[in-house]
Amino acid sequence: MKWRQHARSDAAIFRGKFSMTEKSESQQSDRVAFYCSRICKGRCCHFTSPEEGDVPCPNLTKDNLCGVYRKRYAEGMPDLVVVGHYRSRTVKTLEGKAATRPFFCGRIEQIIAAGRMHPDIVAQCCIAHPELLERIEEK
Question: Which pLDDT tens digit goes with each residue over 17-31?
Fold first, then answer.
């Protein structure tokens, strides 16, 4: 399933937060990916600043999934990496053209723990609030 390859978190996130006796890790990944794609719409994959405004990750697909998930979150990958570049709306090169700036990707649970994600996004995040996944099943 396409969602499985793009789930926003790796198996380590689920340890201790979800009951693995009820659902397999794969099913949990599918549920997280569905939630992130359809409900959250990948809002954690956007960089927002007063200078730049809202900048989506260059690897965010049309269906709000991570286009480089398997490679990005493979075993041994660092917690923070540059996953692409974007054209700045405010920073210019010496020639007056929009400067290319790096787009950093971090592990969602660490971004939340460091307080670097907007509280409104955290409130709707199924990684921070696993109970949101249960609400999907109830509907």
Answer: 444 444 577 788 888
